[in-house]
């Protein structure tokens, strides 16, 4: 079986919370990493028309294709942890939004799912077997086709594989809440991370920026863990620069509805 490990990967270390080797651009001071992420987050989202295509009456095939690739990616990545699954799903959504899959070509969907998982595993420097992943997919592809699909995904995503996700903004928003001591901060962050993982496949969240999802997930966590302080935290978050209060309220409602189902 052929294995790809961290030693054979040329990609630098990656973490969902700190996607870039240096958290600021060359022209930005070192104490403004979060502002840089706010400025580039839109570049790491699906195409602007993606959400509309999925919710429109004419998007039945599109919806079914997304459902299938989400399910397959989750199945293929289930042994590698939540971070790998999240990153692979992120790649799949972005790829599908810019490169619609051909109808009646299940092999294309299977190959894309396999390669999204492989790319996520490479980014997280996780040891894996391509043969085992393909066996889980129920399809065997030669290395030439796998490499071609990887290149197609990389090109479609403009090589932006260090995804800016809601996890990048958690510490920034938590720092504005004025929580006393590490324990409540850790508890809040842990619950918000869980909410982000749980709600990733929700179609209605695709129209919101990662920072909005991060803030909304934290508000949902606050409502559960610190209900007496929720109003104060909500007002603080709504006043945060770079966030639109109306969009944040809508995003929060989507997450609350998803968690309530």
UniProtKB/TrEMBL annotation:
Domain of life per record: Eukaryota
Any one Pfam family match given in the protein's UniProt record, by short name: Cyclin_C
GO biological process entries: cell division
Record-annotated Cyclin-like domain positions: 71-155
Keyword RNA-binding attached: no
Gene3D superfamilies for the chain: Cyclin-like
Keywords: Cell cycle, Cell division, Cyclin
PANTHER family tied to this protein: CYCLINS
Protein name per its UniProtKB record: Cyclin-like domain-containing protein
Lineage summary: Eukaryota, Viridiplantae, Streptophyta, Embryophyta, Tracheophyta
């Amino acid at each position: 079986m052929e294995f790809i490990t961290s030693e054979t990967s040329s990609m630098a270390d990656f973490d969902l919370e700190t996607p870039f080797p240096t958290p600021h651009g060359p022209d930005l001071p070192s104490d403004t990493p979060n502002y840089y992420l706010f400025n580039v987050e839109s570049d790491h989202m699906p195409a602007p028309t993606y959400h509309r295509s999925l919710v429109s009456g004419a998007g039945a095939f599109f919806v079914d294709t997304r459902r299938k690739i989400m399910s397959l990616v989750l199945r293929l990545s289930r042994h590698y942890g939540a971070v790998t699954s999240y990153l692979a799903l992120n790649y799949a959504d972005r790829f599908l939004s810019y490169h619609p899959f051909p109808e009646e070509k299940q092999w294309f969907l299977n190959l894309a799912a396999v390669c999204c998982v492989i790319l996520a595993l490479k980014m997280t420097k996780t040891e894996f077997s391509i043969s085992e992943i393909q066996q889980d997919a129920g399809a065997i592809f030669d290395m030439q086709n796998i490499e071609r699909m990887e290149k197609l995904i990389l090109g479609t995503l403009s090589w932006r594989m260090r995804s800016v996700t809601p996890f990048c903004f958690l510490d920034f928003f938590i720092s504005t809440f004025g929580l006393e001591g590490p324990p409540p901060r850790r508890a809040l962050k842990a619950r918000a991370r869980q909410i982000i993982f749980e709600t990733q496949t929700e179609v209605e969240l695709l129209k919101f920026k990662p920072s909005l999802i991060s803030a909304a997930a934290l508000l949902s966590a606050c409502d559960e863990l610190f209900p007496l302080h929720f109003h104060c935290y909500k007002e603080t978050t709504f006043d945060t620069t770079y966030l639109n209060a109306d969009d944040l309220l809508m995003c929060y409602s989507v997450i609350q509805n998803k968690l309530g189902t």
